[in-house]
Write a structure and sequence with these properties.
19% of the residues lie in helices and 36% in strands. By secondary structure, it is α+β, with helices and mostly antiparallel strands. It contains 2 helices and 5 strands; from the N terminus they run βαββββα. It has a 5-stranded antiparallel sheet with strand order 1-3-4-5-2. The protein starts with 11 loop residues before the first strand and ends with a helix. The protein has helices at 31-49, 130-137; strands at 12-17, 59-69, 78-89, 92-101, 107-118.
């Protein structure tokens, strides 16, 4: 998977703290939590790039996730989740997420997700417009 260091797109960072509800019987964050954090990071980027009044014109759904787990996240770890956009084709958008422990930068997880843009009225795939693509690639805030 590409890393933030070799991809030209803007990187958006979102921080998360591992809560007790994320911990499983092995005393680390359950793998399902990583999927949630990947989606939460993508959502945080979308909400930062598209304010209320604009974002309602779009619906994003996941087509597929590819996740590679490197190390476990533990209770109370502060996680730095970094996302950036890859290739956009038609209604599909490739997004990458890296999850690192903020304290020491240790890589915990890498993910690649294919998202599909839907029209909110028809719920059918909708081509990603040039303006949407531009705003996803540029710094927000």
């Amino acid at each position: 998977m590409p890393t933030p260091h070799n991809h030209p797109a803007f990187r958006f960072t979102h921080e998360i703290v591992v809560l007790a509800s994320a911990i499983d019987e092995l005393h680390h964050a359950n793998n399902v939590e990583y999927v949630r954090w990947v989606q939460d990071t993508a959502t945080a980027h979308w909400l930062a790039a598209f304010p209320v009044g604009e974002r309602e014109h779009y619906i994003w759904v996941v087509r597929e996730h590819h996740i590679r787990y490197h190390r476990p996240a533990l209770l109370h770890d502060r996680l730095r989740c970094t996302t950036w956009i890859g290739e956009i084709r038609g209604a599909q958008c490739q997004r990458f997420v890296r999850i690192e422990r903020a304290e020491d930068g240790v890589l915990l997880c890498e993910a690649e997700t294919q998202w599909v843009l839907l029209d909110p009225q028809t719920q059918r795939p909708k081509r990603v417009e040039a303006e949407v693509e531009r705003r996803l690639w540029e710094p927000v805030g």
